[in-house]
Amino acid sequence: MRGPGFVATIFASLLPSLAAAQLQLSADLGSAALRQTGFGGSGVVTFGADVHYAGARASIASSALGVLANDGQGTGQAIVTGALYAPMTGGPRWQIAGSASTFAASNDLPITSAQLTVREFIGDQSRGVFFGAAAGTLGRNRERWPSFVGQGGGWLRVNDDQFLVALSATSTQLLEHADVAQIGDVQVADPASYVDANVGWQRDRAALTFAVTGGARAGIRGVAQLDGWGSATATAWLVPRIALVATAGRALADVVRGVPQTRYASLSVRVALERHASLIDRTSGAASGPRLTLTSSGGVGAPRRIEVRVAADSLVEIMADFTQWMPARLSRVGNVWILERAIDSGPHRIAVRIDGGEWRAPVNLPSADNGFGGNVGLITVP
Amino acid sequence: MNARRLVPILVAVTIARSAAAQDSLAIKGADRETMMQIAQVVATTTERGLPIDPVIGDAQFAALMRAPGPRIVTAARDAAARLEQARDALAPTPTPGDIVAGADALKYVSRETLRRIRQARPDRPVAVHIGLLIQLVSTKVSVERAEKTVLELIKRNAKNEILADLGNAVNQDIKRGRAPDDALSQSLNALLGPNAAGTAAADLTNTATPPKKKP
Q: A65, B211: Cβ pair inside 8 Å?
């Protein structure tokens, strides 16, 4: 098959997944205190835009940021990433991603880069690991240099908290340039290699999101022997499509994309196409009341562990179709109430009673009219 | 005493024995006449080779809600009827779990929907898939969209754990203010699409994260 036909076939195969895709679009406008290598702006205006289009097998993301200082100087950067994924089967998923980026400052030539990354993800939304490798190129003023990155890491989600860790090793060229009188632009690239260790934490609680990331870089050749970075970001969705974003931090130079080292503190307003849970939304946030989760302690036929999280003084009971609608008491273990019981796979109806009060549906489960003026929770047991 | 009168008594004795064995099958609050009628429904259900737990369970629940005797019996009869319809819709080889799930689903969807699910997954259990269908429809996702989603997940051979999580995730999103069909798209994408948490972890390896987040 000829090249264009092959490409058309790939895109045709992706159309069904893209048709069911999600589009996210947002724009930021804000003010920042910024200190960046080669850029003297301190009080600056920032404007950014972000587009993310994700389907089951493919995603396309693009973001851009402009920084404008009082003296008219500025910087601009943009990145476009496209990724293909293996079909979701519950097992490992490969990802092939290509990205192109550019960074430019006033009165200077732009730096461009491109990378092809191959990764394998093993896990699900709750936990997992990944490993991969990337090869790319970095260029300025008609010269280009290669870049190579090996990477691995993992993630763990516990309720609203997400923990991330990643390790990467990079080998490329460190570009330095200057405008020399009577000669013009002079640039030099020296070999650079280093290892980055990164950690991150994010709490996503309805209208509020907090994120803290940080890391350390150990230079092997051409960069500082030891350096660190960190950032903290808080996002508050005031209304469903408008958020206030505060962020501050220090970023090390992204050598493979030619983005210099930066310190920053910024406050911006974000406008998004997609609705978010917001502070004024009365339905946002976690509803108060019992939350019920089910875990399995083993294979098929093993008892299921029912956990109810609720503020209760002395007694938590459930009744369900699998208890023949007879109340069953849960045992308290710390802040959680627990019952182990064999439950068949499939749909089940369940209600919870706290301290002898009314029977009610757990707030985290879909609920249904019980036919007698009340509600029961609906749970699907895998 | 003829055989017709003997059957309900035998079934009642069976239930009582079963109740003793499982300490949970006695139908509290049902009078003798109601109990006899329920016993007949249970006997018929047993003769037809259908699971009896949903019949007894629905009667039990109605009694628990202090429903009058006739309504308790109606609950049992309705459950039995749905079990039979579900078995037909999920033929030729439904498991008892499939039949129970299908009977529950018939409170929300048609037999044709169950038939299409069976056709998509002809020789394997579908109880968990039907459980997801019930959860989606009960959260006001349209029946068409819910069925399409379940059929798509069958086609993708999605794991039971993913199916079980999806209904809860959609419900959470709806409670946060999202429209039901939008919430389904969002949750489906989060489960089937790029792993958001994994991608976030991988993004950590880019010291230049998307520039909007870092001037």
A: yes
What residue ranges of chain A have pLDDT lower than 50?
A: 1-4, 6-20, 283-286
Question: What is the predicted pLDDT for the residue at A90?
Answer: 63
* Residue A11: predicted pLDDT: 43
Q: Cα dihedral sign for A118, A123, A124, A130? A: negative
Q: Which of B57, B176, B213 sits opposite A247 (nearest CB)?
A: B213
Q: How many CA atoms lie within 13 A of A345 on its CB side?
A: 19
Other C-beta atoms within 10 Å of B124: how many? Answer: 11
Residue of A nearest to B129 (CA): A346
When pLDDT is averaged across residues B127-150 and rounded to a whole number, the result is 96
The pLDDT assigned to B207 comes to: 53
Nearest one of A259, A89, A60 to B192, comparing CA atoms: A89
H-run or E-run covering B36: helix B32-47
Taking a C-beta distance cutoff of 8 angstroms, is the pair A249, B202 a contact? no
**Closest CA of chain A from B152, distance in Å:** 11
pLDDT at A92: 83
Task: Please indicate if any CB of chain A lies within 8 Å of the CB of B132.
Answer: yes
Helices (runs of H) and strands (runs of E) counted in chain A: 1, 24
Using CA atoms, how far apart are residues A54 and A62, in angstroms rounded to an integer?
12
DSSP labels, B10-23: HHHHHHHHHHHHHS
Across the interface, of B75, B176, B200, the residue whose CB is closest to A284 is B176
Burial track A34-70 (b if 16+ CB lie within 10 A, e otherwise): bebeebebeebbbbbbbbbbbbbbbbbbbbbbbbbbe
- From residue A303, alpha-carbon distances to A90, B54, B100 in Å are 23, 21, 20
The pLDDT of residue A287 is 59
Interface test with A, best of B133, B135, B206, B209 (most A CBs within 10 A): B206
**What H or E segment, with its residue span, contains residue A79?**
strand A74-85
Say yes or no: A336 contacts chain B, CB-CB below 8 A.
no
Residue with tokens 């709750």: A126
Q: Can you give the pLDDT at residue A224?
A: 85
- Which residues are bridge partners to A353 per DSSP? A317, A359
pLDDT at B188: 80
Whether pLDDT at B1 is above 50: no
* C-alpha to C-alpha distance for B127 and B100, rounded to whole angstroms: 8
pLDDT at A72: 81
> Which 3 state secondary structure label does DSSP give B70?
helix
Using CA atoms, how far residue A159 sits from A21, A127, A209, B59, B139, in Å, is 26, 12, 13, 37, 22
Chain B residues within 8 A of A262 when measuring between CB atoms: 214-215
Q: At what angle do helices B111-120 and B69-89 cross, to 10 degrees?
A: 40
pTM value is 0.64
Q: At residue B72, what is the residue type?
A: I
Coil, helix or strand at residue A306:
strand
pLDDT digits (tens, 9 = 90+) for B156-178: 888 888 899 899 889 988 887 77
